[in-house]
Amino acid sequence: MALPGERFHVLAQLEHLQSKYTGTGHADMNRHEWVVNQHRDTRAFNMSHPGLNTFIAVVENESRARTRFNQINRMIQPCGPPPEKNPLDDV
Amino acid sequence: MSRSGEAYAQELNRKRAANQRAAADEDNNDSNGNGNKVAFGAAGTFDTDVYGSVRGEKSDMYMDSIGTGEEDDVDDDSMPTVQKKAVNYSQPHKFIEEVAAASEDTDPFADTRTKTIAERQSKYHERAMRRQISPDRTDAFIDQTPDNRSRDYGQVMREQMLHAEKDRVEREISDLAKSGELRVTGQPEKKKGRWDAQEAPDSSSENLGAASATPSQGSAPRKRLGFASLSAEAATPRVARWDETPGHPTGAVDATPSADKWSTTPAAQTPRRNRWDETPKDGGLNDGSMTPGWGMETPARGSDDVKVEDTPSASKRRSRWDLTPSQTPNVAAATPLHAGSQTPSFTPSHPSQTPIGAMTPGGATPIGTAAMGMKTPAPHMIPMTPEQMQIYRWEKEIDDRNRPLTDEELESLFPPGYKVLVPPMNYIPLRTPSRKLMATPTPMGGAAAGGFYMPGTPDRDGVGEKGVGGLVDTQPKNAELPPLKPDDMQYFDKLLMDVDESQLTKEEKNEREIMEHLLKIKNGTPPMRKSGLRKITENARKYGAGPLFNQILPLLMSPSLEDQERHLMVKVIDRILYKLDDLVRPYVHKILVVIEPLLIDEDYYARVEGREIISNLAKAAGLATMISTMRPDIDNVDEYVRNTTARAFAVVASALGIPALLPFLKAVCKSKKSWQARHTGIKIVQQMAILMGCAVLPHLKALVEIVELGLDDEQQKVRTITALCLAALAEASAPYGIEAFDSVLKPLWKGIRMHRGKGLAAFLKAIGYLIPLMDAEYASYYTREVMLILIREFASPDEEMKKIVLKVVKQCCATDGVEPSYIRDEVLPSFFKAFWNQRMAMDRRNYRQLVDTTVEIAQKVGCVEMIARIVDDLKDENEQYRKMVMETIENIVALQGATDIDARLEEQLIDGLLYAFQEQTQEDSVMLDGFGTICSSLGRRAKAYIPQICGTILWRLNNKSAKVRQQAADLIARIAPVMHMCEEEKMMGHMGVVLYEYLGEEYPEVLGSILGALKAICNVIGMTKMTPPIKDLLPRLTPILKNRHEKVQENCIDLVGAIADRGSEFVSAREWMRICFELLELLKAHKKSIRRAAINTFGFIAKAIGPHDVLATLLNNLKVQERQLRVCTTVAIAIVSETCAPFTVLPAIMNEYRVPEINVQNGVLKALSFMFEYIGEMAKDYIYAVVPLLIDALMERDQVHRQIAVDAVAHLAIGVYGFGCEDALMHLLNYVWPNMLENSPHLIQRWVFACEGMRVSLGPIKVLQYCLQALWHPARKVREPVWKVFNNLILGSADALVAAYPRIENTPMNQYTRYELDYVL
Question: Which residue ranges have biased composition labelled Acidic residues (chain B) (predicted)?
């Protein structure tokens, strides 16, 4: 039943499926992209759990709404600008 | 055999039923088969089989609707369907036609061939072929000087205007001509254009072939022909092909820009020899001139050339060989197959021509559209159109197969010792064919001395040869390529030549490569296709857009394209679009010309594919390019072009967003210049609504504002399309958005009072869709108003109007504000008068709409009112009409129940049901469903009628027609629950016995129904009360399980399963064992429901007789060679362990794992894998027992073995989630993890799955820690699989990972540490 051409089918599908979501990665990813995703995940996590949000608010001595707002804002370039692209990267 | 026989009989029946007229039904359909006899004293009727119907409605012979538009405008939102043939032919005529058809050369297998797209398309769709692929356009967004060969927007627009102007003048002239004001004055002979050449003497060498070319053109050129000849006196420009393509120096294989395809010279820039002026040469075959020379030479047909002449039995075809070609019917048949396939055929002035003329040399000149990729054919190939090639090939094959056997062949066929005898002197051969059959007795035992001898069939030269009947070699020189089909010749001929790669220029090399890839994709095996597709995608940018599209698009326009091929080519375009991105801009219009027709294809998938491509195209080329490319087509004179363009625009809107397109649409819909532009603009909005549904809601207001002016347009077509557009918008936005429509209510309102005919229909449709959006108060007001007009239009003879009126009535009745009394008094009488007649039942769409509307009205006025009006029609003479009545009543009763129905109506109903049921001849479930639904809603009230119904059923079970028996059995299955409710158990028992007796039924369809009926009875009266007793019934079922018919299998196994589940104690264990092994076979059935039923039954049986016996045999089964059976066995083992608890099975199979045989071990593992899948969380009790076995398996050398083990681990892991088995799982993961480096994708897939299982049960953090070791590994081979797992972690448990990501130090540029995690309070 399985044709030789179809062997990679399921895996290819999986890869395609995964690539549609943000936060997923691939073998050619660089560190910066990966960490940026982690940061965004973390911020999203912090602001969407009220307890954690309150905790951070207390530590930073800010209102909860302000904390939440900050968390959201910090999702823009959380780690600063992406590193210069090294022409050797593509090789 | 019996199946095909039955299928044939069914086919005949169906045909007959379709041809019978309603009037003849009551006499004819008597199920006893003697229905045609005339009762004593009754008036005789004509035999309908011979005379056709003599009564019945004559009405459908008249045209009952009048089109209001002049041209075939497709305003409806539906697809232009293929024109239905009128049904009113009578059979004798048909026979005459059949005979007439048979006398010509017809292909008896024509039905079985796969049809090309061109063959199944309607006239309207064929217009696609008349469009020409326009040349490249300038890419306005590229920052370099535009290539002056490409046309820019201005040029295209000017051409477009010229075209429109020309069309207008043409029309004016033809109007004048029609009115007699314009006459063609006599012209001097020599001034005539070449189009007038019909009358020209064919001796003049100038006119070679041109004469025969003309009549076969499609209608568009013919129009032009008229234009040319009519206006000849007004100094017509010669519409001559000798004029080279106007103006634009085009690229090598480029399309010609002129709109007039007759002036397209194929391969414009090749210095082509002018074949019209050429005297035929003798060496024509080799000198590259296609036409005239060819005729002079006898083609090399190999050895059989002479033999054909020798064949004593002069076949029909053979006579052609002696004829002058012009008289040959086949020439005519072959040439004009396609509109516009102008094959300038060979000259009649060469009587010396050889018979091969039937192929119409020179026929390879493809039709206009295909011509744009034209090259002069390669010298060694014989030019034929694909059709001719096809015909030739069939003839060749038939000739080859039917040619007489030579002595040598006979020699090799017979055993040694035979010799040729002289026939006796007194022998006279039989002349009467009917006696021939009986004449030769087979020599039974006569030659038996040497025993039976079966000689092999010797090969015959030339039979089944590769290539086109051995005439042309179709195998490309590169042996890795698939062979060409005859139709491909004109596209791929270059591959047939042997060339030296090093001599080619870069372009030629690329062209050849593309050609190779395309051929692989088109004709190759799946792997070839795959590699071709991959290579062409990878190198797309290297090849460049031009060379790619110049080869792909002509293929898509080929007249002999099949669905599969089109799909593949479209796929290629899709893939390369991604790669080419903005390089595609100059080719957008070309692509659209080819792809737009897909948007109106009959095939759903073709439409989807078309949308996909256009939306990708829009994304690649950008909005501005799309608009500037498609703008000129918006007011094209051809309605076809406008229609497809509107649809394409809608797709662009869905791809790039509606807001982006709004300004453009606003401008188009307000166009002052041409109503066509307004029409198309509004149609775009309509198509957007249809395509995008509720996604138009945010822009509803803007869209309505854009189109609303169209309601008052002076062009009727524009008003109509506007109303239809509003209807589409309202339908898409329902139930929201009435505010947006405020501004159009009034004009619509005025419109329905002002307009008549088609315009009115559209306005009504719009109102109908708007009413459901309104508040109850408004709705009731509008409904009351619109009803008056609707009732007036009930009487309209127009079919389209009828459908719309029905639809609007339904929509009105569904609103809250309408009073039942109003409907009852005002609407119903005329409604029934106008619509409930036989004619409405004949058209499928009318039928549906009427049923829906009636059911909707019944919701308002109550079921009794409606049913009482139509119940008597259940006895109508027209079966289709009875069906419609039945379906309506069924739907009403299903919705509203039967509580309101009084005793009298009930009686009428049952009476009608029985009549309609008994009289049915067509095979569908309407009557059955109706009967079942109505009986079950009557419930206990049906008791009085049960004896009568059962009597009918019993009587019909005995009928000699299989169909009748099947229906009777099906009906038992439907009403069994009702009979149970009515406490008719005795009757059911009786039925059971009768059905039991009919188990010997030979028609599988009937047998299946009988089994289904038995099952239904069994289910309602229970195993203990069942008659015949289960112990008698089951042994009778065992052999039936072997039946190969799916319906029988499914019903039988269901019945057996029910018995095994609830009545297993009535049958001996031995019998169950027997059934078990029958079931094993069924586990590999094709149909899923059968497999599932078999699996369930297996479980029930194992439960009934205990696992041990079953298991012993199953384990033995693992040793067999047949893989399929082993797989089924493993499934069975898993089921047994699920139903009888794993501990009864596990020890035995784990013990079996010690057998040193890989098949058995694999089987055991597989059984474990299935078992863990089935038992789910029960696995927690067994995990520690199986871990050592799994560890062992995971250390096995054999890859497949490990693969199964990994799979088992995955299922196990998921099963034990939450039961604290982490220690065992961690242990297993350590053995699973190293498999990530394997090459087998199957194993990798299982490994990913197992890791996913571990994520669930072991927790994502554990798995992340494993991943972190390898995510940044220097070797890609290591990184790749691990990223797959990591991605699964992200998708599945992103939150959980937040706490577990590693701490990454900051760099001077970037801050990587997540400081929030360091906060401590």
Answer: 69-78
